[in-house]
Amino acid sequence: MTQSPSRADGVTIACPVCRSPFIPSGRRVYCTAACKASAYRRRQGARSPEPLPLIRSRRSLSVYECGSCGARPVGEQYCEDCGTFMPRVGLGGPCPHCDEPVAVLDLRPKEVLPKAMY
To answer: Could you list the mean pLDDT of each consecutive 10-residue stretch along the chain, which spans 118 residues?
Structure first.
């Protein structure tokens, strides 16, 4: 009958995952946090994680407006005509009717919006 070693200082035990010897402290069973995580995944029957959905960047959904020429592109922060960077108007996209860039804030009446937004 094999006995596990006592938890006295100076006695090493083998990590159940990687089999490397280490000096336990307290109730520690694994040599590193990586081995502890690996053992947990094995116990849980870990599947490969499902891929996260692709998230579009906020810039690609934003409408910008040039202060000099008034151009309003979607997703482009640099004005090609003036050679300057444009401030963001807000989230938006092309209008389904006329295909012109429209910000969501342009579609709502000012009475509905808080003062800080316009």
So the answer is: 54 88 88 91 74 72 89 89 89 86 81 56
Task: State phi, psi for 111 to the nearest 5 degrees.
Answer: -65, -25
Widest Cα–Cα separation across the chain: 87
What string of H, E and C letters represents the secondary structure of 99-113? CCEEEHHHHCCCCCC
**pTM to 2 decimal places:** 0.47
Q: Do 68 and 38 sit in the same domain of this protein?
A: no
Q: What is the rounded CA–CA span in Å between residue 110 and residue 51?
A: 41
Q: Are 75 and 66 in contact (CB under 8 A)?
A: no
Give the domain extent around 35: 13-44
Structurally, the chain folds into a number of domains equal to: 2
Contact 93, 102 (CB under 8 A): yes
CA distances from 78 to 6, 22, 59, 63, 70 (A): 68, 58, 12, 11, 12
10 CB contacts (<8 Å, ≥6 apart)? 23
